Structure formats: structure tokens, C-alpha cells
Amino acid sequence: MDELLFGRLRMKVLVLTNSNTLSIPAIKKLKDDDLLVGVGVLKKHVNLLASSIHAAGVAHEEILQLERSSWVEELSLFIKEHHVETVWVLTFPWLIPESLLSVLPNRFVNFHFGLLPKYKGADPIFWQLKNSEELGGVTIHLMNDQVDEGPVLLKEELRVIPGENYGLHSRRLGEIVPSLVEKVLGLLKSQPNEFLTLKSVDKAFDQKPTEDDLTIKWGEQSATEIEYLINATNPKYGGAFTVVAGVEMRILEVTPVSLEQKIESGPGQIIHADVVYGVVVACINNEYLRITVVNTAEGYMSGVKLFNLGFLPGQRFTS
Length: 319
Prior knowledge:
This protein is an alpha+beta fold and 319 residues long. It has two domains: 4-190, Formyl transferase, N-terminal domain (Rossmann fold, 3-Layer(aba) Sandwich); 223-318, Methionyl-tRNA Fmet Formyltransferase, Chain A, domain 2. The protein is built from nine helices and 16 strands.
């Protein structure tokens, strides 16, 4: 294959993914530029991803449906038979072994949707939003057999919009990848000897969030920390967990509220409820949040609906 055609770098690219939001813009760009030779997805998730992949112009026969028992051998054979020159990994859940990486040395590229090295692992987007970081981004690096390790080719930062939730931030992250395609191809072609140096950190957030991480701690977290947690859980985790009057629910959206005078109350206590404002809850430090959207076993509902169902001042949200 010609390395340069009509002023564009050419390489045969195979994409591995487990996310439509984060990968589809890149897949469409690669397909439109006639660089894409296939997309590998987990067979058990193909029904969730196939329609979006098809909408990006990818034919049914270009989708590899991978199973845990045979995926390494299948990919190795596909790479050889289709003369794949680089494999791009966008949120693929299985650790790629050295035996597969060695089929294309220094050509497996991970698009990690977080800023390394602080935000490694399975869900950097959650942790960055929960920790109220001002910046998210994409770190693009050559892969080895360690999680999110390997020489860094490129890092692209993306400012977090105040109030942005997980879904919105993910969409914006996915949309910046097409603009990086030519840069990544150029770096792969040039085979650089020098790579980006990342600053070391004292603590890395490299684990998937636990149920405890997804639970609102009314007596410990400020209103701002609760709001960031809720945004970080929406929609992927269905909201941040809490209980009121024995009813379990996940809060998907809140709005900070300022009161003209202090109201004697404890953290998590409903201090106001009506058909206009819905439910307002006290937090620590004399701060307040209005609950606007929740997810319960009975369905999604507004704060006003909570009032209509009988949730009233004096009742308390707990962990």
C-alpha cells in the first residue's frame, strides 16, 4: 500500500472497542479515509454496538465478534491475513497479551480516555469528574503487557465544562479523536525514539468504582462534592446511590440552592418540598441541593414527583 495518497498518510488500521460514544467518531474518520480494515468487539456486546458501527459506514462482515476463548488467535490470524499495520484500542476490556502484541511490535496503540499517569485503569472518566478535575483528555500510547503503560505518543487535554456529566464528557472526548488521526499515523510512520515524559503522581486512580464510591455520604461530602459525584455517575452507573424513607434510589441530577437564611437541619434532611421546586436537601456546611432527577425501582422521576409521592420536610436521605 502506498504510504502517502493525496497528501494523506496511509496505514491499514484495525480498531478494538467496547464503546460507541468514545470510538464511533474515530471509526467513521478511519472508514471515510479508507484506512479501516475492521472493528473488533466482544460478541456478547455486539447487539449494543453494531447499529452505531454500521452507521459509521462499517459493513457487517467488517465487524469481528470476539469470544474470550479464542479472541487472541482470531485477531492474530486477521492481522496477518489482512496485512493490518496498526491496531488502535479504544476502551477494550481485555488485557492484550504479549503473544498478540508481538504480532505487530510497537503498532498496538491505546487511546486512553484519561490523563495518565494519575488516571489509569478501567474508568478514568468517572474519577476525573468525581474529583472535580478541570481537565480531562486522551492519552495515546504504544502498548505493552501492562495496563495503561508504554511510551506515550500524544496527549490531548479537554477542559471539563462545569456541570458536565459522564455522558456529555464522553461524547466530547470521542469527538476530538478524529482530529488526532493524522498525528498518530505520522508518529507511527516516523518511529520516534523520544516520547512524551509524564509527571509522576503520589496517587493513581486505577480501579473501577465500588458501590461505596457510588454512594452519597451526606455527613461527609460537601454539596459540591455530591454534585460532582452525581455527574460522574450519570448515565453509566445510573446515578449516585442513597436511601430516603426506606426507598432506595439513585440521584441523576441536582442543582445548588442558596437560601436567604440558615435553616436548622442535619445533612441529608429534606428542608423544603413543594410542586414548584420539588425537594431541597441540606448538606454539610449549611449548603443545599435541589434534587431534579432520580432513578427508582418504579422509574425515572423529577424532584416534584418525589414531593407528589409524599416525600416531605423532615425526612432524611442516608447512605
